[in-house]
Description:
CATH class: Mainly Beta
Largest sheet: 8 strands, antiparallel
Shape: globular
Number of strands: 12
Helix content: 10-25%
Amino acid sequence: MLDLFKDFFYIEGTPILKGVLPFEILKELDYFISRCREIKNHPLAELRRHRNAGKNSYQVSIPTNLLMDSFLLSFLIRMGELYIGVSNLENRNVRINNIENHHDGYDLWVNFSYKGDINPSHTHAGSLSGVIYYQNDGQETYFTSGPTLVGNCGDIIMFPSNFGHGVREKITDNERITLSFNLNVINN
Length: 188
């Protein structure tokens, strides 16, 4: 497990863990984005819209069947365990946040952002949260008591869910695509 995370590091003076996704998981994201784009472009897209803080043009949860059959889910759980310093593989200490009795299912969603979109400072549900940068267009993620980051394709960050962060208004015309997630720490 440690080889997957050997180049991950905490940004100095912050609780932000940063790294790069393995190539194989980035290829999974290509398919996830394609499926989520199909949902976004569907005539009934409004029914599947993920409601959240801020204003992104469209947010949609990754379909549960794709998530449950992915390496990404296992990667996020292991990254959460690395974050809290647990390496006992017999007892899972991290789970993805589950929104029971709601079409969103699990707390892993895609953000499609365009010119004029904004995500003001906010916090998340759960214990640990994060962002995966897929197509960032140079947009900065800022933290209310920390740095400003510009993620590249495949970069991933994780931080405590109550750590305030946001994205300023998008001023360029290019599409920005990120994924956000929430994890829960259990038995810790």
